[in-house]
From TrEMBL:
Pathway it works in: Amino-acid biosynthesis; L-methionine biosynthesis via de novo pathway; O-acetyl-L-homoserine from L-homoserine: step 1/1
Gene coding for it: metXA
Naturally occurring in which organism (per UniProt): Mucilaginibacter paludis DSM 18603
Ranges in coiled-coil conformation: none
Domain of life according to the entry: Bacteria
GO molecular function: homoserine O-acetyltransferase activity
GO CC terms in record: cytoplasm
Protein name: Homoserine O-acetyltransferase
Transmembrane segments: none
Subcellular location per the Swiss-Prot or TrEMBL entry: Cytoplasm
Annotated function: Transfers an acetyl group from acetyl-CoA to L-homoserine, forming acetyl-L-homoserine.
Length: 350
């Protein structure tokens, strides 16, 4: 199922002051908007994901899952800079009639949310029953709940933060350094920087997983080996896998957008910004997450009004929010109550 495309006819002004002409957003919808228009589940996706949430978040979304198209109107939109239907560095610059490449303007998390607000208006979505996102998706959800607190009924933030950390920025910068060592990145060609992107993905995986993950999944049983280890092969395989579906330019700009995340910008600080959230909010942390440690989710819980906190452990680190869907289902069900129709139930908080 390919993404639908929303085209915005007016000029879209970015937070950096630059303008996009001919903005478009790729998106998927599943199910139907009900008569009362109160069954919308809006998903904000993570860094290299796309808008087909039934594909990458199966187990939480889909037929017979907690969020299913039979009951809910599920919307997921592709973020600006990402190559799955939305305006991105490989889009045609109307001024030059050539792809933007590195002439693409800086995009922030806040810009992504402003674009998705336009899509929500287009779809007739004036109330979002549940706004949910993990990682960069959680950063978007948080921004939206601050910009339009009245539009969001419930919010779920998983493995995310209020302001991207120096640690997270350092990981992203290291990946960009890897991309920039590939001279083809500056050649203005669609596959430019591919070798650099492969190396960047290998670095990213280390932050998404962790020691326990590799111990459990990439252990070599052959005591006589001197080379060609499973974990070496795995890093290369994952890099090649990303190359088949992504490009270095989008990756570069998306990592920059993540670095820009700071809900306190222009709002008298982070705590003041978080105090503006009105939606009852479930914050979920993952004990083994080394990229977004639980201290960041506990901070959100402490400063978002009407928030509850839950955490779980898994060998899969940050990526657990995509893998441990059974745990997430139970936690979210407890938060939302029976069939998303009741009042928010109390949870044990940190």
């Amino acid at each position: 199922m390919s993404a639908e495309i929303f085209k915005y006819s007016k000029t879209f002004t970015l937070e950096c002051g630059q303008k996009l002409h001919g903005l478009q957003i790729g998106y998927h919808t599943f199910g139907k908007l009900n008569k009362n228009r109160n069954n919308v589940i809006w998903v904000c996706h993570a860094l290299t994901a796309n808008s087909d949430v039934l594909d990458w978040w199966a187990g939480l979304f889909g037929e017979n899952n907690l969020f299913n198209p039979e009951e809910h109107y599920i919307v997921c939109a592709n973020v600006l800079s990402s190559p799955y239907g939305s305006t991105n560095p490989l889009s045609i610059n109307p001024v030059t009639q050539q792809p933007y490449y590195l002439a693409f303007p800086q995009v922030t998390i806040r810009d992504m949310v402003h674009a998705h607000q336009l899509l929500a208006d287009h779809l007739g979505v004036d109330q979002i029953k549940v706004l949910i996102g993990g990682s960069l998706g959680g950063q978007q959800a948080m921004e939206w709940s601050i910009i339009e607190p009245e539009r969001i009924n419930y919010q779920i933030l998983i493995a995310t933060n209020a302001k991207h950390s120096p640690w997270g920025i350092a990981f992203n910068e290291s990946q960009r350094l890897a991309i920039s060592t590939d001279r083809t990145f500056y050649a203005n060609q669609p596959d430019g920087g591919s070798k650099g992107l492969k190396a960047a993905r290998s670095m990213a995986l280390l932050s998404y997983r962790g020691y326990e993950t590799y111990q459990a999944t990439q252990q070599d049983d052959d005591n006589e080996k001197l080379d060609n280890y499973k974990s070496s092969s795995y890093q290369g395989y994952q890099g090649e896998k990303l190359l088949k579906r992504f490009n270095a330019y989008s990756y570069w700009y998306l990592s920059k957008a993540m670095d820009s995340h700071n809900v306190g910008r222009g709002r008298q600080g982070v705590e003041q910004a978080l105090s503006q959230v009105k939606a009852p909010t479930l914050v979920i942390g993952i004990k083994s997450d080394i990229l977004f440690p639980v201290s960041e989710q506990q901070y959100l819980y402490q400063h978002i009004p009407n928030a509850v906190y839950s955490e779980f452990d898994s060998i899969y680190g940050h990526d657990s929010f995509l893998i441990e869907t059974e745990i997430l289902t139970k936690t979210i069900e407890s938060f939302l109550g029976n069939n998303l129709n009741g009042k928010v139930v109390k949870m044990q908080t940190a």
